[in-house]
Amino acid sequence: MCVSMYSAVWSREETTERNYYTRYHNMSEITAWMEQMKRENPDVVSSMVYGQTYERRNITLLKIGLSSTVRKKAIWMDCGIHAREWIAPAFCQYFVREILRTYKTDTKVNEMMKNLDFYITPVLNVDGYIYSWHNESTRLWRKSRSPGTGGCTCYGTDLNRNFYANWGMVGVSTDCCSETYCGTKALSESEAWAVTDMLGKMREDILAFLTIHSYSQLILVPYGHPNISAPNYDELMEVGLGAAKAIKAVHGMDYTVGTSPDVLYANSGSSRDFARLIGIPLSFTFELRDKGEHGFELPEDQIQPTCEEAYAGAQHIITYTHDKAFYSYAATVTATLWTTLLAAWVSSAILL
Amino acid sequence: MVWAGHTRRRGRPHQILVWSMGWTLLILLVVLTVVHGNPTVMVRTGSGPTVGFDQHPNSVPLGEDIQTTTEGESEVVEEVMTTGVLNPSHYPARRAATVVQHYLNTRYGSPYRWIFLSTVHSGSAEEVAEMGRKYQLALTMQEMISNVSGQCSAELFFPGGEGQSAPQVQASCEGLHQSNTTAQEEAFYQQHRTSNNLASGNNIPDSYGHVEPSMKPFWHLGGVASSFIMLRESNESTLYNMAQVANFTQLETEKDQLRFNYHVLLHEMISQEIIHWKLLVTWSPEQGVQVLQTELQPKCHHCEAPPNTTN
């Protein structure tokens, strides 16, 4: 009996752990999960509340990295800026679990955890996400939950049109009932303000910015305005195409890479554009599965393969970012010169 | 460069040479470190605004060739329609290809045949003087239930001018509708044609993306029926998918056609809107899918108010 009880407990725990990341989770579950990540990994995980939603809920990120005495560079990832894109928060959870699971044994992940801090927001639009869980009729909610103004009875602003990045110029609506309503002004939404504030404080340190959405299977590079190009467009495309290649290698899925106006539609006020504008060089939007068959309602049996491929894509970008910072040409030249100098002094010592 | 080993003369000139080289190297290193920073800090190349870009993030660069019209408060940047060879991964080809997908479903779709765009291989577009724009596309389409793929070539015409007019599509595909659905369709038809147990369902897929196996043919049928509307409503500035079957109810069979009322939610990608339509749909293996009536449902604004929940 002892043996059977033990195996029952063991398999339930194993099942729970294995099945957890193949299901969607509501906001209280995700909040509890963040606490669990901190509890189980106190040396590398801490959390930070960096803002409030309209309905006064905390906006929380997990900061993950090996602790260091010197200031560290950072990678930013946020999920769930659009409430109905449930696969996005699921991916943030998967990503966190994956780096925590592998950093002790995988030398590359370990190195990146040593040199970088990951700032991950599993759900940015907390109010919207909770609303999308309310019942079947609210499932396809997209925006924030702030009320309309000026006599407009509809709710919500599109958070990804509300940032101070060519705000209000293209691909937006000024009708508060519209799904792409950009707000009364840039940063009218406290959620967008919270991200702006954090990025502003950290802008010297953030090397890459990833914002996760669904659906369409795309990797989007700045800018959303058709007539403005990022100065490092070639680099962004090269890295993006590399990420798409890494994604395809996992399960054969095609992700298209390009600027939003090229491959999807023009838009302004996005968080990705804001990140690039304040100087974060590698700024990408991921649009995860699928291509329209299920759309926002991606089946749970696709969570795992979607997360696996997206993880490969994200890792490609993060590895490039890390190696560029910590294995740069300047560092190589500097190292070479130090070696040469040392050789010179040693030689002169011998000479004398 | 004269190094030790070459001459054993410990003359002053050698010492001076070595020391001066050493100092030069040191100075170089200091300069390099100051300029590039700590080796563990990245050189931030390419950061900051683009050339000609104002300090104000909200401004538009001067001298750029932007066609803008001012409409009320916001500026509208007109889309310049691409002509000539199309980039297969850019949106004009993809939107046109999706219209072809809708067309193929209206022609060949059924409860057991639902077609989706797989790849755009090539395309071109041209203006047809004052009448509209014509596209030619080479595509791969995939039938989702049998997983069969087919190569298609298509020509479509988006009428221009006033009044919403549906695009006109011609397409021929190889290998796509070779999946043998006859047996399944016949069985499904026989099962539901008698009025004993009229079928109904709602929220397909549900919030978790789940579709009950018994509901799958009705889901496909909803998708195919939606294709009639999506085809009719499409233009070069839209991209439609069916987001969900909100509900459906089977009505009495009439003239050997299964009949259904469907309430479907369409997702229009460019506006991001969810658009509700009610449809009267008929189907039989011989006649295929037909949509007899369509009714646009207005967006429910008062439905958006916060629910009385504690969370």
What's the short story on this structure?
With 352 residues, chain A is an alpha/beta fold. Chain A contains 11 helices and 8 strands. Chain A is globular.
Task: Please specify the SSE layout and strand pairing.
The complex is a heterodimer of chains A (352) and B (311).
Chain A: H1 2-20, H2 27-40, E1 45-52, E2 58-64, E3 73-79, H3 87-102, H4 107-115, E4 116-121, H5 126-132, H6 190-202, E5 206-214, E6 218-221, H7 233-251, E7 256-259, H8 260-263, H9 271-277, E8 282-288, H10 303-326, H11 329-351
Parallel strand pairs in A: 3-4, 3-5, 5-8, 6-7
Antiparallel strand pairs in A: 1-2, 2-4, 6-8
Helix pairs in contact in A: 3-10, 7-10
Chain B: H1 12-36, E1 68-71, E2 74-77, E3 84-86, H2 91-108, E4 115-128, E5 132-143, E6 149-159, E7 168-174, H3 182-193, E8 200-204, H4 216-233, E9 240-254, E10 257-268, E11 273-284, E12 288-297
Antiparallel strand pairs in B: 1-2, 3-4, 4-5, 5-6, 6-7, 8-9, 9-10, 10-11, 11-12
Domain Peptidase M14 (chain A): 23-321
GO molecular function, one term (chain A): metallocarboxypeptidase activity
Active site (chain A): 287
Protein described:
The complex is a heterodimer of chains A (352) and B (311). Chain A is of the alpha/beta class and 352 residues long. In chain A, strand 1 (45-52) and strand 2 form a beta hairpin. Helix content of chain A is 44%, strand content 15%. The radius of gyration of chain A is 22 Å and the shape is globular. Chain B has a 5-stranded antiparallel sheet with strand order 3-4-5-6-7. Chain B has a 5-stranded antiparallel sheet with strand order 8-9-10-11-12. In chain B, strands 1-2 form a two-stranded antiparallel sheet. With 311 residues, chain B is α+β, with helices and mostly antiparallel strands. Chain B is elongated and about 115 Å long. Chain B has 4 helices and 12 strands; from the N terminus they run αβββαββββαβαββββ. Chain B: Keywords: Membrane, Protease inhibitor, Repeat, Transmembrane, Transmembrane helix. Chain B: Residues 82-181, 200-308 form the Cystatin LXN-type domain.
